Amino acid sequence: MGNLEKLVYSSLCPCKYLEYWPATISGSQHLRGLKLKGSIPVDLCQLESLETLSLSEVEIRHLPESICMLKHLKKLQISNCWVIEQLPEDICGLECLEKLDIWYCTSLRDIPNSICKMKCLKYLSLCGCEKVETLPENFGCLECLEKLHLAKCTSLRDIPNSTCKMKCLKGLDLSYCDQVKKLPEELGSLECLKELYIEGSGISRLPQCIYQLKGLRIIGSREQLESCGFTSLRNTSDCRDYDYCCYYCFYVEV
């Protein structure tokens, strides 16, 4: 493959049967971004300078623990990996990770407790991970988290009370989490919270302290918001690819 010592970004899609890197890639000290589809080479950990890693349609049940050796990784995206059941137990080894973006990993069940030790994490998505039933009790230890995207986690039963410790949280998306029936009573302590999506969830009542969050935008169907006691509703132009009807929002007045 020639001299790739100065390679910064690479996309190997699809590459279903790749087991080992070509020596020219594994020796690259400047590779910052990598996109893989179909397989994960066993010597992935050799790419020590990686900052962004995207994995899609990887057909393995467990992500290799060696991923946790990528000490400079800031963004990890895992999408449409339908057979993955478990994340690495030592995922907290990704100590620089700021964004963990997991989409439609429909067999994923368990979120390791060690995720709560990721002090730099600002964005976490588990969108479409329909078999995830619970989140770690110490979830609130993610004190730098700004956005939590749990849309379509249809087996998720509740939101840990410790979530109320996420003092930097700005956005919470519970769209179509139909098993989630209530929110933590101390949600009003999240002073930075600006967006709360509840459309399609099982939530029919919000904590009274929600009115303390000035400037908060609550998005749901008209019927749902009215059942929560909100009457001054505005049509929202907020559109996402899974929206098939019109949603409304309620603004807590500043």
Provide the succession of SSEs.
Answer: EHEEEEEEEEEHEE
CATH architecture field of the domain at 1-121: Alpha-Beta Horseshoe
Distance between the termini: 59 Å
Main-sheet strand order equals: 1-2-3-4-5-6-7-8-9-10-12-11
Q: CATH topology of the domain at 1-121, what is it called?
A: Leucine-rich repeat, LRR (right-handed beta-alpha superhelix)
Overall morphology: elongated
Number of helices: 2
Strand content: 15-25%
Largest sheet: 12 strands, mixed
Low-confidence sequence ranges = 6-10, 241-245
Q: Report the mean per-residue pLDDT as an integer.
A: 85
Backbone structural class: mainly beta
Helix content: under 10%
Highest-level CATH class of the domain at 1-121? Alpha Beta
What is the C-alpha radius of gyration, as a whole number of Å?
A: 20 Å
CATH superfamily of the domain at 1-121, called what?
A: Ribonuclease Inhibitor
Task: Report the count of strand segments.
Answer: 12
GO biological process, one term: intracellular signal transduction
Domain Disease resistance R13L4/SHOC-2-like LRR: 69-174
Keywords: Repeat
Protein name: Leucine-rich repeat domain superfamily
